[in-house]
Amino acid sequence: MSNSSIGASSKLRTASSQPSETSSKRKRGVFQKEFQHMMYGFGDDPNVSLKFYPPTSPLPESVSLMEDIVVEYVTELVHKAQDIGSQRGKLSVEDFLYLVRKDLPKLNRYTELLSMNEELKQARKVFESDEEKLRKVYDDDSVEG
Length: 145
Description:
InterPro entries: Histone-fold, TFIID_TAF13. By secondary structure, the chain is mainly alpha-helical. The protein has helices spanning 3-17, 21-25, 32-41, 60-86, 93-99, 104-144. It has 2 domains: 28-99; 101-145. Helix 3 packs across helix 4 (60-86). The termini are far apart. 5% of the residues are buried.
């Protein structure tokens, strides 16, 4: 690898470590609680001390950093999907699938969540129709009785 490519990559890392203009505009701490729970659930050190029991939550700085990283990633992903979708005039799920097509774990997770969402929609539809039938039967019985 040449020295010029090393210098260019370090410049990219330095530039990307600075907060973007979108992250400076947004309201911070919106997802604080959710990230604390997720980080603990995924094995973050619970900061156990002999003085404090039960374990406390992850460090606020760690939670804030994770929130910044995830929000910036999602924002960039949505902007890229909007660019792709603007060619057709609308944003769709396929735009997101297209963006993650080369990252198989993400693509598999997306498709899994989409199929689960479809199953939940079908279950709600069945539940609502069953509920309507029961309500109709109950109303008919109360009118007759």
